[in-house]
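Structure ticket #2291
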Amino acid sequence: MNSHLSEKSVIFFDVGYTIDYPASGDWMFTRRFYEVVGNRLDTFDASQINEARSAGMVFLDKNHLIRNEEEEAELFYQYYRIVTDHLGLRLTDAEITSIAHDRTYNMENYIIYPDAKNVIQTLSQTHRLGIISDTWPSIENQLRALDVLQYFSFATYSFELGTFKPDRRMYLDALEKCSCYARETAFIDDSIQNLEGAAKLGITPILIAANPAADVETSYTKVHSLSELI
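Resolution: structure written out below.
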């Protein structure tokens, strides 16, 4: 076992690019999105697409405090409506509704890393495990579909607090739920910024670089696969 974990009582996990990754290669532009949009995106350059994405994300970020999957689907409808209007894709309401419903309820949009379940199951035998994730109400169905939800004892989800990592409220909520001192815990995430937020409170940070984009230089412990933790 990783020496940093052997001394801990609790291990917190991020989800995206830690436990799983998007089947389409993109969290918001799902396979259903690409299926409906077809080749219409080919007429836009990357900057135009990124501008449309950003406009949609501004809306989502401002309306993140929500309660259930129904509200999630409604927000995603507005996101895809914004992207559609920004790019002039001329999708119908029915098409946008279909994309938003798929984004909310289709758990095939997520693929678990091959070693994730075994590592989580193994670590759950020696530690209490938790989640700290910027996510949506469908997250528990996602973790259930990946067959790992049962190994986590507590979770801090951004949609319940209306804020995102590295806001200290995310980590304080997690620490309160596990009833441990920060020094007794570790946090695995693919974002240096998120790890910095945890480290400021005394939580031991571990960078997971399963996603190549996360493989950056850092003074933190870094692993490229969850298997390196056991």
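Closing remark: Residues 24 and 31 are 5 Å apart (CA to CA).
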